[in-house]
User: Fold this.
Amino acid sequence: MSALTPWRRTLPAVMALSALATAAWAAPDSSYRLRKPQDEVIYFVLPDRFENGDATNDHGGPALDSLVDGFDPTRAGFYHGGDLKGVTRRLDYIQGLGATAVWLAPIFKNRAVQGQPGHESAAHHGYWITDFTDVDPHLGTKADFKALVDAAHARGMKVYMDIVVNHTADVIRYRECPDSRCAYRGVADYPYTRQGGVAGAAINDGFNGEDFSKLKRTDWAYTPYVPAGREHAKKPDWLNDPILYHNRGDSTFAGESSLLGDFATLDDVFTENPRVVAGFIEVYGQWIDDFGVDGFRIDTARHVNPEFWQAFVPAMLARAKVRGIPNFHIFGEVFDPDVAAQARHVKVDKLPAVLDFAFQSAATDVAIGRTGTDRLATVFAADPVYEGGEATARQLPTFLGNHDMGRIGWFMLKARPAIGDDELLARVTLANAIMLTARGVPTVYYGDEQGFTGDGDYADSREDMFASQVASYNDNRLVGSSVKGPFSAFNTGAVLYRRIADLSKLRVATPALREGRHVTRAAGDKPGLLAFSRLLDKTEVVAVFNTSDQPLKANIPVEYSSVAWTALHGACAATAVAPGSYAVELKPLDYKICVSEGR
Assistant:
């Protein structure tokens, strides 16, 4: 397919190919392909911070100054040397945690260093892409990526790629403000049909506000240009044309600027243009074709127009089906704890799922003891607002922290600075237990299982798993451990590693915890009792938590047919006290998981 072919012509062809027999693409043992998104436990990895499997690629080429090649393992915001070979080397460790899918931060070639003089940082995170068709040389090669995917698949594990369409690296400049960030200029004051504002000369004759391929001039708000020597900095080459960018200055992340503004100076792609739609369908479809990856996490999805996703998503699902991947998992980043905001992007944009920031916010508050347990019950009660209702909610990746906002351990320490070691471990354990038993797709941020807490968000939450040279990482307080860095953090005996592994394996072995309908049984406006059931066929699994520092006893409602009970974790009463009522007793900051097969 040509990258310039309008998507309306390419999509039917892709859909038709999906009717081909998938067995031709499948590995000899491809049963993992049949697992649904909600069957997975995801492990999210920043390859640069995970394991250094090949020191020869640390600089991404010849060793140059760190402000050129981006490698400085002593600075939190620079490359540290982790790579794809390192992830492959540690698949035993990841699988031992109970994870069934690995989500990799973007692996594409990036502009190594960006920022104003004196405030530079490097693209260790992977979101400053210049070449969407190749692997960043700091992380390895396409051969290394293929080896990783093949090794994961041989174990029955899936691999999810983190992709970006909203923006590229910062290459385009504006003549009006060459040395500083440009303020956002909106459509009303700077329409596409006038040069430099409503009083300017008429441009882009024939443009009617609908067919953006008719735009020929780029100077509606600013005068964009590509600096000399960087005319072909991006790949595919069509990405070097300034007409395919909004060119309106920095987003304020409010109103229309959320869609049309540059994301902190990053070049904002004109995703309304059919050339861009077709181009990205081809780019990311090729990664599915060539490597057989199992899903996409979509960065900054809320900052892209819905029509783009309405074309892109079905094209990717069709491409995956042709490749023998019937349950390709696509989930977008909608960085907002409001359920309505998340659900809008599922209903309107037609994203199959979004990262569940509403769960993250509520589960954190509940586990900290900052709010009543009804805070989380309210999130679950809103599941029907998603397109597809509760079935869609079961496919939302749930998480407790990430590379942007920080870690669950840091949230705990920030909210409770005087918290003791035992309580810190108990509350972080509770948070993980809630995530791994509730509806959704539990997602563990790398290092959380070793008790990483970090010092904040962004680079302060991206510690090295290998022995770090960053001083601010090495003095961090850990959850469940008194160890200080530098050290190699692949300890399968670490207390949180063992606890998360037990919960993950329990979830994988218990269909009701993956597929079951979620019913909240008890919650209150103060810290204390939280109970919910997962119902599947004749099975009821009830998970009960005590988020307070006092013991509790209570009767909770259950199904009337759930009479005989056994323990999956903790001490569970053998029988119901009466049909429809089950007695629970918990120590402070404890939980139990009980199952009845009597329905």
Confidence is low (pLDDT under 50) at residues 1-28.
